[in-house]
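Posting this for the archive.
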Amino acid sequence: MAQAARVMERGETGSSGPGPGISRPAWLERITGSWEQFRRFLHDVRTEMGHVTWPSVPDVRSQTLIVIVTIFFFGAFFFVVDGAFGKLIQMILSKFGHT
């Protein structure tokens, strides 16, 4: 009875654990600990997402246009450079007798 009163003073309930003097297996502690860590992680993610400043729609559109134009520019650039190096290598190989 005195032990039950001390448990109640600390705010513990008898149903949360396996009982007094009985410890949970290590694998069960790892699983429950991982679950608590995962819940804490999700809570932290949700809190941090509230602090994020999202870009406006016009900003997203202009940046997307810049990315698309840059991709086409570098695509054309590498196409020309690849063609030039291909011709150069063909000229070098034909000059030394390899076809």
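The longest helix spans residues 57-95. Confidence is low (pLDDT under 50) at residues 11-15.
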